[in-house]
Design a protein that fits this description.
This is 6-bladed beta-propeller. Keywords: Signal. It comes from Pedobacter paludis. Pfam families: DUF5128. This protein is mainly beta and about 425 residues long. It has one domain. A five-stranded mixed beta sheet has the order 1-19-18-17-16, with no helix packed on it. It has a five-stranded mixed beta sheet with strand order 2-23-22-21-20. The chain has a four-stranded antiparallel beta sheet with strand order 3-26-25-24. The longest helix has 21 residues. The chain is globular and about 70 Å long. The N and C termini lie far apart (about 70 Å).
Length: about 425
């Protein structure tokens, strides 16, 4: 009995020491603490927050008609959009003219696949000097050009994990989320790995491979956010109010956000056994508590981010901008339209649902992108009735030729940096 006990202890110690030997620790030496009360956020005029505002209606035809923008990416001359309602990828030129569409009819299943081929998003990948749309469906990747033409089809095989990897601009560093480190027959799962020419140089936040079976994890969207600075990412962990910054050689705890206790999770929430596998039940009973933050962008002196709660209310200030220099806290839902936005709101927050559900779609080449429906735009125009508002040629034509059932509108915003 004693020999068995000693053997068990030695095995456990060996396992623990192996993890400790490999695990990297996030540097918190330069951490900045931000005390934020969302209810104290103020409004501002659009021109106080953004230097440029551009409305881009998307051409409506029988083929191009779709519901809403679930995913948006840009290329040099195109907008690539995924619509969850129609399970389609649509490509529009930068002026909003319809270019092509990819739906299940172009994603053909293998002979041994009986299920209908559907997909739930896309990736843009580089192929020499051009961008290709990569769609994962069934057992295959389908690659389309920006004219919706199928270029190639590849079996996914063992590439599933690498599909999530992000390559930095330095061409050397790769960020690998949910990475499996192998040491002989042993393996350890990490939330983040930094690879340099495929060699592990940093392994962060180990976790048990079956953790999602043992407990409930409510996500707030993609935990990794590109915010326009080469070779840097923000990373957000489950049930934390921390922003980690990932660079080519390290992960650091950059910002710790402290919210009022009344809307914050209990300390050590994940260690509280009474809530194990009962997280959803907890949030249903505490719908006003923040379970996570998402969409963080560091733009100049400003941090943009979204707070996520179980309950829903149009009055909640859940999309915020915090100025690191002066401490000003602005609610994006409460921006007042002015001449820069042609006296139209730049989000539909507080009136409709797109911005509340999605926040900003992306931040690319110095611009934030959001969207709302034609119904919202016509509603906002009606609120300007009798106020002698003048619209540019694009919106004037849109209001003359389209209606409340036309395609959504992209709003391109250039944020101020100070």
């Amino acid at each position: 009995m004693l020999k068995k006990t000693l053997s068990s202890i030695i095995v456990c110690l060996t396992f623990v020491l192996n993890i400790q030997a490999q695990t990297s620790k996030a540097d918190s030496s330069e951490m900045v603490t931000l005390r934020i009360d969302p209810d104290a956020a103020r409004g501002a005029t659009v021109s106080q927050i953004f230097d440029e505002v551009k409305f881009i209606p998307l051409e409506t035809t029988k083929e191009s008609l779709f519901g809403s923008i679930s995913q948006l990416r840009t290329t040099k001359d195109s907008y690539v959009i995924y619509d969850y309602d129609t399970k389609s990828v649509l490509i529009f030129n930068k002026d909003g003219k319809f270019r092509a569409k990819v739906n299940s009819s172009k994603v053909v299943a293998d002979a041994n696949e009986k299920d209908k081929q559907v997909f739930y998003g896309f990736n843009l990948v580089k192929n020499k000097d051009e961008s290709l749309i990569r769609i994962s469906s069934g057992k295959n990747y389908f690659f389309f050009d920006l004219d919706g033409k199928l270029i190639k089809k590849e079996a996914i095989g063992k590439r599933t994990a690498e599909d999530r990897y992000i390559k930095f601009a330095d061409s050397i560093t790769t960020i690998a989320p949910f990475y499996v480190y192998k040491n002989g027959k042993d393996s350890t799962n990490y939330e983040i790995a930094i690879l340099n020419d495929k060699k592990e140089i940093g392994l962060y936040f180990p976790f048990e491979s079956d953790r999602f079976e043992k407990d409930q994890y409510i996500g707030s969207g993609n935990p990794l956010t590109e915010y326009g600075t080469d070779n840097e990412l923000f990373y957000v962990r489950y049930y934390e109010y921390n922003l980690y910054k990932i660079k080519p050689k390290s992960v650091s705890l950059a910002y710790r956000i402290i919210f009022p206790a009344s809307i914050s999770l209990p300390k050590n929430f994940m260690d509280m056994t009474e809530y194990k596998k009962k997280r959803i039940e907890y949030f249903e009973k505490n719908p006003g508590q923040i379970y996570g933050i998402s969409n963080p962008y560091l733009i100049g002196d400003n941090i943009y981010f979204k707070i996520n709660i179980w309950g829903w209310s149009q009055d909640k200030k859940n999309a915020l901008v915090y100025n690191l220099k002066n401490g000003d806290l602005t609610s994006l839902k409460n921006l007042e339209p002015d001449a820069r936005s042609q006296f139209l709101p730049v989000t539909d927050g507080g009136s409709f649902y797109d911005f509340t559900n999605n926040g900003f779609h992306s931040y690319e080449e110095g611009y934030l992108y959001t969207s709302y429906s034609s119904l919202a735009l016509f509603t906002f125009k009606d609120l300007n009735a009798g106020k002698d508002r003048k619209y540019d040629s694009v919106l004037t034509k849109f209001f003359e030729t389209q209606n409340k059932k036309s395609n959504p509108i992209i709003i391109q915003l250039k944020p101020k940096k100070n």
